[in-house]
Design goal:
The protein is an alpha/beta fold. It has one domain: pyruvate-formate lyase- activating enzyme (Alpha-Beta Horseshoe), CATH 3.80.30. About 35% of the residues lie in helices and about 20% in strands. Strand 4 and strand 5 form a beta hairpin.
Length: about 350
Amino acid sequence: MVKPFVPQLVYMEPRALEYPLGQKLKKKFEDMNIEIRQTTSHNQVRNLPGENDFQKYRVAKSTLVVGVRKTLKFDTSKPSAEYAIPFATGCMGHCHYCYLQTTMGTKPYIRTYVNTDEIFESAEKYMRERAPEETRFEASCTSDIVGVDHLTHTLKEAIEYFGKSEHGRLRFVTKFAHVDHLLDAEHNGRTRFRFSLNADYVIKFLEPGTSRLNERIEAAVKVAEAGYPLGFIIAPIYLYDDWKQGYRKLFEELEAKLPPHAVKDLTFELIQHRFTKPAKRVIQKNYPMTKLEMDEEKRQYKWGRYGIGKYVYQKDEQHEMKDTLGGYIHQFFPEASLEYFT
């Protein structure tokens, strides 16, 4: 079982101590006897322990920077929500395929932001612009926030904030089972709690450092019992030798464990594996023994945002994926909705 994340090293930005949460976290980490260093900005985090890039990368993945979110303009977050709401950046997991490999390749440490009131104020402005229409906020675009929230509780604060909101809804997704502190949050049904699931093969070989499938499903059951609207992202859908059977087994396990009331309002999102050339280089450097297949010759090239294209599966493979997994959803959870396949 993957234990809850505890940083080896903590950096504090001076401005973080101007906020109650910054002071609280400093005391918490002092009480845990974790080394705390000062940094003027997360960009100045340098000289991490380690004799080579490989070691430094792993130390960075267990380093937490406590800081202030300066940019309060939210990115869009299609197709899952209207906006991404930023409470944290980075992840302690070691998923080989993760797109954070390139967006944060040189700075893979985890950052948490303590100016939550300012972030909520910004969210209010976005909600007012769209009212009376609802605005959905995605809290896990740049991190797996559940993985760090047992320390910070910013996600719990956000769940309760949106629980009282008239026009806002919160969404996030996690690969971690450490959800107990979120079960008593007053969510009022306004937060959709999603879990990222995959076939055992993918979790075993490509998602080290994350909770196992049975642990995620057990956590999803707890979340359902706590009355949260529930969802699952099957991502990345990855074609390995026995993929159809592997994904079928995932749906069988899910159906066997979920309580009946949880399947009344259940959502699924399907995302195929994709990679960019820069990502491939970073992945091969950080995980030289990876089993992740990234053969451009086997894929088709798809133009992306900002002119950076990605390699996705061939059209016929995509149809087969969507038909197969869509069929499992229809068979095992006929009342659930498939939000998208991409």
